[in-house]
Amino acid sequence: MDQKIITALTNTLIFKNINEDKLRDIFNNVNYSIKEYSNDSPVAAEGEECLSLGIILDGSVEIQKTYSSGKVVTLARLTTGNIFGEAIIFSHLNIYPATITTLNSTTVMFIKAADIILLCSQFPLVMHSFLELLSDKILLLNKKIKELSFSTIRQKISSFLLEEYRYQGNLTLKIAVSRQELSEHMGIQRPSLSRELINMREDGLIKFSGNTITIIDLYSIEELTN
């Protein structure tokens, strides 16, 4: 197996605790396929059957849900080392709930369900890491459900700010994504996001400059999400 692939695999959650020599031995006995995609290419379509676990070896993808109204919500962006399909591959309804599209030239490894079972049965570390991955996915889905319960743009912004505050440990937040990406993540229009940020600044809740947002009234921000 190519060294670049081995290096990419060691950066995934499933194989993070396995050294490179052991990984080579593992994949000498496991069936897998590798596919290369150009920019803006479909990797999986909403409604398509999920038969394999996908591991991004290089590049990045975007997961989007399109509603009948035409509204498009960006659920996640995945990069090198990230995995998709883990939450649905063993479901009796193993259908992709959203569309996965590349954001640039991307290489993906696919491992079928039967081979995932083989890996987990033969290598306890892989099984532990796979269960950890599923647990993280459940927490992420719970977070998404909470976000969907918010009826106002201000609540959605407040939820995002609180999450970043807990992660960064500082009231002054460095926002790593663009306004467009943030609005897509929240499922709202960019002008609506910008307008509400200005309203929140005028109400004394936050202040912002460039890619930095500072929480001024933490108590009120927390109350908005309760």
Pick out the low-confidence regions: none
What is the highest CATH level, the class of the largest domain?
Mainly Beta
Structural domain count: 2
Task: Please tell me what the overall shape is.
Answer: elongated
Provide the β-strand percentage band: 15-25%
* Element-level helix/strand string: HHEEEEEEEEHHHEHHEEH
Largest sheet: 4 strands, antiparallel
Tally of DSSP helical segments = 8
- Mean pLDDT reading: 89
CATH superfamily of the largest domain: Jelly Rolls
The Cα radius of gyration reads 20 Å
Here the CATH topology of the largest domain equals: Jelly Rolls
Strands, total number: 11
Helicity range: 40-55%
- The largest sheet has its strands arranged as 1-8-3-6
What would you call the structural class? Answer: alpha+beta
End-to-end Cα distance, whole Å, is: 50 Å
CATH architecture of the largest domain: Sandwich
Q: What does this molecule look like?
A:
This protein has 226 residues and is α+β, with helices and mostly antiparallel strands. The chain is 42% helix and 24% strand. It contains 8 helices and 11 strands. The protein has helices spanning 3-10, 20-27, 113-122, 124-149, 153-168, 179-186, 190-202, 218-224, and strands at 33-37, 42-44, 52-58, 60-66, 72-79, 83-84, 99-102, 106-112, 172-174, 206-209, 212-215. Helix 3 (113-122) packs across helix 4 (124-149), helix 5 (153-168) crosses helix 8 and helix 6 (179-186) packs across helix 7. The longest helix is centred in the middle third of the chain and has 26 residues, at 124-149. It starts with a helix and ends with a helix. 21% of the residues are buried.
